[in-house]
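User: Could you check the structure of this?
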Amino acid sequence: MSQPLPHPYEQLTPDTVLNAIDAIIEPLGWLTSGHQLALNSYENRVYQVGIEEQKDIVAKFYRPGRWSRDTILQEHEFSLFAQEDELPVIAPMQINGESLFEYQGFYIALFPKQGGHSGHIENLDDFEQMGRLIARLHQTANAVECDQRGDMTPQKFARDSRQFLLDNQFIDDSLLPAYESLSLDICHLLDEQWHNPKMQLVHGDLHASNLIWQHDQPYMLDLDDCIRAPRIQDMWMLLNGDRDQMQAQLAAMARGYEMFLPFPADQLPLIEVLRTMRLMHYSAWLAKRWDDPAFKMAFPWFNTARYWSDEILTLREQFSALQEHPLQLIG
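Assistant: Sure, the predicted structure tokens are below.
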């Protein structure tokens, strides 16, 4: 019986990480100190690495086979354009005019280490500040080529995710009929509510953990998932609390956003659509990465009967939420 092939990341030993970075930073006359710390990342592998007589840097080893070189370079272009526009975005370092490097089959980018803290935003002034920041990011996005980044649609994020889970038999047998029926009903409802919104380049994954706050200044991290989507995508994940709180937060973001661009109020009905798409996509993402040993260690609760039971309950709640009145701007 043949043994399963090792996952590509199993080849990423501490020595490989340091050797790769030493090769990349050699033109700068830098040398790694030998210190490295694995950071909390699963899609890619990310390390804080010490550099002799310099500040630590952060190295991202992109998941092999996920993105093409051109796709990653469009992410980098977006970050670098935003940095040129004086936006607080952590952009990749450039060495001899290059931001993307290759070593033993891995695409690699280096970033300056950014100190600070992350967490839910509570203060309405901070939401207004985020509105200004997001609008400026969207202004920058207008100048960025994005033909390699794909579109966020119900087909890709909901229907295709559902089909992957069913085709690969991830759903517990006892719960399969309930999941199959409910998820299909949800897909139909998502299609009905989509209405072909205007699609533009956005951050795509702008939630509290992808913001680092330092001295009341938010820095945006990780444009790895930048994509063409409705622009409300970059706002709804920052909302938290009950309905009244979220509507007040939206109003604050809108005030800030409208200093630079018209706020996409017509996309407010898409918030629950996008939330549902993200939920379905998340389960498929875990399933697609289940051959990665790090996922089995980090998400041991996935692919259990309890997980799918809870997932069905969550999807039922979302099915109801999709039929409720959408959030509105108040004040």
